[in-house]
Design goal:
Helices cover 14% and strands 38% of the residues. It contains two helices and eleven strands. Strands 1, 3, 5, 8, 10 and 11 form a six-stranded antiparallel sheet that branches. A five-stranded antiparallel sheet has the order 2-4-9-6-7.
């Protein structure tokens, strides 16, 4: 009788494991990966216009074109919780409220070669260059536009200086795109840098020494 009870119990355990494997939602909590998300807003932002000494750092909008108007955004990531297991994703988000011309021309995002610029003094003749670039998956549209900048952020967080500046252009269009800056009245439309990451988990190895006496 005891053998029969044990056999039934074993069958129930095996059945539960099969169901759990078929449905991730039923897996124990320890088998799931935990991720966290942190959102940053620019500490500086502005745009520069071709051959123009005017500073546009105190406006409520960023105007972006393929070459005549370039947006600049600076983020301070010094409080990011390092170390981490890995950066899952890093997304730069802009809220576009006006497009002069047709939609669909993608943004191109560059990491600026210098963070030594200020929104109240930057203009066409002193804004930084760019080195690493990524292209957005879709063209500019009215509403939130997202750009995957994971490679740029992963490199930045490995450096001692956790300040990062972006240059944003359109790929080919000659039409202006208007996006909200951090000086806009409603904070919900400010530019964002959203980083998803897996927290660092320290692995401990325990050694057990067993003495056998014959």
């Amino acid at each position: 009788m005891r053998f029969g009870v044990r056999r039934i119990g074993l069958v129930l355990v095996l059945a539960w494991l099969l169901v759990a494997l078929a449905s991730p939602l039923l897996m124990p909590a320890w088998s799931q990966t935990t991720t966290y998300t942190v959102t940053y807003y620019p500490v500086e932002d502005a745009y520069v216009a071709y051959q123009d000494e005017t500073n546009y750092g105190n406006l409520t909008e960023l105007i972006i074109d393929s070459s005549n108007r370039i947006a600049l955004l600076k983020f301070n990531l010094s409080d990011f919780p390092l170390p981490v297991e890995r950066i899952v994703s890093a997304t730069l988000r802009l809220y576009v409220f006006q497009i002069e011309g047709v939609e669909g021309d993608p943004f191109v995002v560059w990491r600026a070669t210098s963070d030594d610029w200020a929104e109240d003094t930057v203009n066409w003749f002193n804004f930084p260059g760019g080195d690493i670039s990524v292209e957005s998956a879709s063209g500019a549209v009215i509403g939130w536009n997202e750009m995957d900048v994971t490679p740029i952020i992963s490199q930045t967080l490995s450096e001692s200086d956790k300040i990062i500046s972006f240059k944003i252009l359109r790929k080919t269009s000659g039409y202006d795109v208007h996006a909200y800056s951090k000086d806009a009245a409603e904070a919900q439309y400010w530019p964002q840098l959203v980083i998803e990451y897996e927290p660092y988990t320290e692995t401990t190895t325990e050694t057990i020494t067993e003495t056998v006496t014959t």
